[in-house]
Structures are given as structure tokens and as C-alpha cells.
Amino acid sequence: MNEQFLIKKVVDYLKDNNISFQENTVEYCGIKKNVMVREKTKDMHFVSFCIPTETNYTQTSFIFIDIISNKIELLLTPQYIREID
Predict the structure, then answer these.
(1) What is the pTM of this model?
(2) N or C: which end of the chain has fewer CB within 10 A?
(3) How far apart, in whole angstroms, are the C-alpha atoms of residue 39 and residue 51?
(4) How far is residue 56 from each of residues 51, 52, 53, 59, 75, measured CA to CA in Å?
(5) Separation between Cα atoms, residue 85 and residue 82, nearest integer Å
(6) Helix/strand/coil (H, E, C) string of 28-85?
(7) Between the CA of residue 65 and those of 19, 48, 53, what are the distances in Å?
(8) How far is CA 55 from CA 45, 48, 52, 58, in A?
(9) Residues 6+ apart with CB under 8 A from 11
(10) Which residues 6+ apart lie within 8 Å of 44 measured at CB?
(11) Which residues contact 58 (CB under 8 A, 6 or more apart)?
(12) Where on the tree of life does the source sit, at the highest rank (predicted)?
């Protein structure tokens, strides 16, 4: 899958869901094998991005995208994990 396509998919998801992020930090990281989602393991693309904080630092978060369906499945931040339907 084209890395730029996945990055755009993540940027669009973050904007559509009003999730604050620094747009120039969205980066394709690679493939993670055996990510546990909904009680089974999958191989997933993962994309990182930074969320600004009130302390002038950023926190790194990740979005996991199913390799087969290209569906965004998981949002992982320092505060929570959100499965995406």
C-alpha cells in the first residue's frame, strides 16, 4: 500500500473526528505483526502523529490500519486505546 495514501487516510480521519494533532508530524512507521484487536491478532500498518499538550511538549500517538482491508482499526494515545468500527 502506498505510504502517502495511508498518511492521507490518517490525516482525514483525525480532521473528521476533531482530534488535535500537528499535521507535519504524521509519519508512516511500518508494519506491526500480531497486533491484538477484538480478541484476535492481525498484521497492521501503523502511522504515528503528535498531539500538542498544554506544557509545550507533544505526545506521540498511533493509528493502526488493517493490511488487508485498509480500514482504520485502532487509535492508541498515551491516555487511551480506542477500537474503531
Answers:
(1) 0.88
(2) C
(3) 28
(4) 10, 7, 6, 10, 23
(5) 10
(6) EEEEEEEEEECCEEEEEEEEEEEEECCCCCEEEEEEEEECCCCCEEEEECCCCEEECC
(7) 17, 11, 25
(8) 30, 20, 8, 8
(9) 23, 26
(10) 31, 32, 35, 37, 64, 65, 66, 67, 73, 74
(11) 22, 25, 50, 51, 52
(12) Bacteria
Q: Please report, as a single letter, which amino acid is at residue 46.
A: F
The reported pLDDT for the residue numbered 52 is 87
**Domain ranges in the chain?**
3-83
Cell 476533531, residue located: 18
The SS3 call for residue 11 is: helix
pLDDT at 81: 86
